[in-house]
Amino acid sequence: MDNIIQINSEGEHAYDIIFSVNFKKLKDELLNLNIEKKRICIVTDSNVAGLYANEVKSLVDMICRQCIVVQFNAGELSKRQETVNKIYDILVRKKFDRKDILIALGGGVVGDITGFVAATYMRGIDYVQVPTTLLSQVDSSIGGKTGIDYKDHKNIIGAFKMPKLVYINLNTLKSLPDREFNAGMGEVIKYGLIMADDFYHYLNKNIAKIKSRDLSTLSNVVYMCCRLKKIIVEDDPYEKNVRKILNFGHTFGHAIEKCKGFEYLHGECVSLGIVAASYISYKINQIDAQTFNDIINTLASFGLPVTVSGISPNSILREILNDKKMHSGYITFIVLKRIGKVNFYKVNFHNMPEDEKELLINAIETITVASKDNSE
């Protein structure tokens, strides 16, 4: 495994992904960004602050003009304009200008918020991604998509803003709670399913090592996911075409997140969405029953949910209607042609044939189980 992946945008070098097992090399990488005379704002959350904020700040303090830390409450419920405004207020008060730098230290929510602030503060300032969760290391820190939630709508406000650097300390994965780690595997498995059958089989062969967080195996997993995402984001940086395949499982997943009041983690909802999308793939004769069942077993093997209670199929279907990927009444679902290859399945929600509606309902019923809370 190399220690660096170079990401290009529109034919030119945009940033590097650096792989390490500690934060020591971060100092040199930041010096390459000429930060000696700049102010640095480290943005983090209440979970990560106590683990890594002091260590990173102590490194940055030695090489920059000034370093401050801004912290907010961990979780999806903080991914709101109110949190963004809090950061704006501090940046203005501390007189940060457009030549200063933000550092996103944390998981996907931290990265999304920091990237959005970087895209909008003074019409854009530089930022660095230092992802500390499996999900953020393999997916959300790469590619420049930023966003915040608005009321009940997930990621409905956002911008594209490429980071200047992504620095991955693989040892941070050892501090993750099991549930957070398992949730990250939802995105990891997605990559194998949509792009690389050999990687998917590698995951299945190394379940025990991955779950025990063997560093060598995790290094391979994270590196391969980053290599796969590099292919996609370089080919389609602004999600006009092929990058849409990364939404496999996400249309159902985002609807479930909303219906469950963000009680479930993003990666857990992606897992449920993968089951539903794979069911459609099976029913339209793209994959066979054995492959469908194997996908379910793989997700479950990594501690990911494959069923959910307390919500009805119709409530999920209604939330899908609010998905930001809806265009002129159509949503294109990503389905599997086979392991490692996808197809597009376009549905007209304004004039949906009964057999197509039945297919979607059946797909959702595959992942929903009745409970006393399961009501319209």
SS strand fraction: 15-25%
Q: Provide the residue-averaged pLDDT.
A: 94
Strand order of the largest sheet: 1-2-9-6-5-3-4
Q: H/E order of the elements?
A: EEHEHEHEHEHEEEHHHHHHHEHEEHE
Low-confidence stretches: 371-376
* Structural class category: alpha/beta
User: Radius of gyration in whole Å, from Cα?
Assistant: 20 Å
Shape type: globular
Give the biggest sheet.
7 strands, mixed
Helical amount among residues, as a percent range? 40-55%
So how many helices?
A: 14
How many beta-strand segments? 13
End-to-end gap: 50 Å
Topology:
Layout: E1 4-9, E2 12-20, H1 26-31, E3 39-45, H2 49-61, E4 66-72, H3 81-93, E5 101-106, H4 108-120, E6 126-131, H5 134-140, E7 145-150, E8 153-160, E9 165-169, H6 178-195, H7 197-205, H8 207-211, H9 215-235, H10 250-259, H11 266-283, H12 289-301, E10 308-309, H13 313-320, E11 330-338, E12 341-348, H14 354-367, E13 368-369
Parallel strand pairs: 2-9, 3-4, 3-5, 5-6, 6-9, 10-13
Antiparallel strand pairs: 1-2, 7-8, 11-12
List keywords for this structure.
alpha/beta, 14 helices, 22% strand, 13 strands, 376 residues, seven-stranded mixed sheet, two-stranded antiparallel ribbon
Task: Describe the structure in brief.
This protein has 376 residues and is α/β, with parallel strands linked by helices.
Description:
By secondary structure, the protein is α/β, with parallel strands linked by helices. It has 14 helices and 13 strands. It has helices at about 25-30, 50-60, 80-95, 110-120, 135-140, 180-195, 195-205, 205-210, 215-235, 250-260, 265-285, 290-300, 315-320, 355-365, and strands spanning about 5-10, 10-20, 40-45, 65-70, 100-105, 125-130, 145-150, 155-160, 165-170, 310, 330-340, 340-350, 370. α5 (about 135-140) packs parallel to α6, α6 (about 180-195) packs across α9 (about 215-235) and α10 (about 250-260) crosses α11 (about 265-285). The longest helix is centred in the middle third of the chain and has 21 residues, at about 215-235.
